[in-house]
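Students often ask what a holo structure prediction actually looks like on paper. The answer is less mysterious than it sounds. You provide the chain, you provide the ligand, and the output is a string of discrete structure tokens encoding the 3D arrangement of the protein together with beta-D-mannopyranose.
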Amino acid sequence: MSLPSMSSDEVLNASWHWKERDITISRVVDELPGEEESAAFKGWNVAQASPSEVHVELLKIGRIPDPFVGFNEHQVQWIGKKEWLFFCAFTSHYALRSPHVEVVFEGLDTFCDAYLNGDLVLQADNMFRTYKISVDADAIGRPHNVLLLHFKSAKTMAMLLEQRHGRVRAGSSNLGDPSRVYVRKAQYNWRWDWGPELMTCGPYRPIHLISYSARLSDVHIRACVGPGPLYKPALKIGLSVDGDITAAKRVWIALHDAHNQNLVAEKTVDLTNLGLLHNIESTARNLGNVVEWELYGLVELWWPIGFGKQQLYVVYVTLFDEGNNALDKYSKRIGFRDVALVQESLTEPDQYGQGTTFLFQVNGTRMFIGGSNWIPADSFLTRITSERYRAWLTLLKEGNQNMVRIWGGGIYEPDVFYDICDEMGILVWQDFQFACGVYPAYDEFVASVKAEAEDNVRRLRHHPCIALFCGNNEDYQQVLQWGDVADLPARLIYESVLPDVVERLTDPPIPYHRGSPYGGENWNTADPTVGDIHQWDVWAGKERPWQEYPSLGGRFVSEFGIPSMPDIRTVDHWLAGNEKERWAQSKTMAQHCRAGNHERRFAIVMNENFRLTADLETHIYNTQIMQSEAVSLAYRAWRREWRGPGKEYNGGALIWQLNDCWPVTSWSIVDYFLRPKPAYHTIARELASETVGILRTVTQNRENDRSKQFYEFGSFRSVDANVEVWATTRSLQSQRVKLELTFFNLETSSPSQVLVHDVILHSNQSTELLSMRIPCDQSASPGHYGMTNSYSVVIGARLLHTGSGEVLARFVDWPQPYRHVDFPEPRLQIQVDGERITVTCSKPVKGLWFSVVEEGVDDVKWSDNALDVMPGDTQVIYARGLEGRSVKFAHMGKEKATVL
Ligand code: BMA
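The corresponding structure tokens follow.
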């Protein structure tokens, strides 16, 4: 046996080949080549990427058309019904001289038999698991080794499992075939109401060869934070070693500041003296906690963005032998924070009743959550590079959002996602991967889920960004909706298996929530007074007008939204030059919109609010403003319900959805190509540190079924409306500011009335500022429809810094519905000075949307966009990356873009 040596971790990322399985697997195994001959081996394609997926490979060799264009999705359906083979030929010098070898598969999608040098070594059936297999060092210690992966059709396997276990319900038909519930593969692959059916397969995450004599088989880092008011940080580290453990004599542990690498603490533990390693029979030993450090005053806490620094540390652990040779090394970046999900009685009822909070508290500070739901950013996961993850999460952060919910029909994201969230201070709500279905609970299924949960909780628990593990997406809600609450076998999983794993493996504890949504009595997942809700009565469900969002909130709204069309360049991408189809209701547009009943639903919302148009560009703009108006109102109204201690009636809202997995018309606020829609910017303004809000209520509407913000016309000579004005701040100090209200009458264009008040914003909550009747000029000549009334009044609100006059927040409230508003010609003055754009106007302008003329290599990053501008309130925005390109603009009343 060779002498103890340093462990090695080799990624098997070279010399991969692939092909469709066209002969029996035993023949494939028999005919597999050795390393030298592999490149020339007939019938095999050289893989272009590793890790990889079959569609990605087929695309790269030009065998299939791009499924994201036109109707091509339908031309590639055959792939999901076939079986596919990948092999890798390798030589490992480390494995040749190490007594222990392990192969670690970080992710196999999904039904995969693995053969090592001809022997079947693994039968995988769960894409979310990390499979580890020990291999006989002699078996792998050859000059040439071959690892063969045989991927079976998940679609077919799902059908077979369904035959065995029975057909169940799983969402509507645009959420894929219900047989998907039996397979632990990303559920959106079966198609979703924003995604195509693309059943891919392959080794989608790296495969490692680990060679060692003795190693650290587990390092459990517990970065704890003691109770308030001091929130003292402490670190415990537990270790397990395995292999030739008698060789392991010492372990060195150090804690460094991740930013400047300064050493915070270190310790060497003599394992011999501890008497822990005397049992040579054992191959693995749990050494327990080798470090218990009190670090008060030595380390700083990690905070979510907006509440403090994202201080991170690195733990280094090295295992040594007798002669002080390193046997194994380990490092992990961590942060110190305490996170709690607070569900406690509110002190007074609100419009929905009393109930309990659903709010997040980090290091003792309660924080309003404004964030997004996240779906996988591509139908082919291997195409999402680290740079793309960073670009997505940067957008989220720059959009003032502080949480991302990883939705249950996708995947557990790779480490890089959580690393970036740690760095940026973005909290993560992590769903376990179940969505919209009656999942089973037979023994093998539960065992697989338990292993999957353990793998992922162990992988993720050290990230300070992880704020919540959640059992599933909408499984309770759907079963309730179908009226058969007794019939959800997977309650065993959501109510016992998963919470047990989270409780057993996380310390400090990470909160667990059974499902999203989950709350009220008897699973009343729509109860606005308990738990979280998904608000789908706007756009879907009862089809309520978006203007009713203020009365459709809840303690935490973890999903709500309304779709819009993406940037016209994204539409042109899927049209690929097909001019005949370049109109809003064409077949190709329908192929790229999967939202249930989208034709009727768009018709309702567009018809109620906008002037219908046959012009595609105008239509796109209108759908985008529709989305932007709707969802920004929801954030504005719900953040108002963060009313301070004991009155946190709304603890947060997460928009459905941040992103897309292909070019599509969907609920996303940023499209597949990372092009923000107007909603991205208007949400960012609602989630800024300070905001100001206005809610107009028309007091003389004839019919009660209209939204209270809508004006109606008829016999009234005047129509009154009241406004309520409030502000919010995230600051932990209360502050004195000026509130300025400007009333601009579109009919009379008489000089604006301006009111200025000194007000105090209470810390970390909303503050009601005033309530008043809208002043309107009764003596002016009769206006719109023969009336002079509040209908013609546009109201601008600004919060100004008392000393410097700096604008802290602004909001403009327009009369509605917009289809009745005769938007004035605003007489805009737009000055472009490098990347700085200055906007002034003589009359109010709504939804001022900037874009650029020529396509550049990179899109422009707008610091703000979709502006509402009032006369006398110059706004300055920045167009990063403009590089001299001409600017275009559109606004309500002039929806087709004009070049400056
Ligand atoms: C939600 C999600 C998804 C779906 C979305 C839009 O409830 O959980 O299932 O894509 O609705 O319908």
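The chain has four domains: 8-209, 339-686, 688-819, 823-900.
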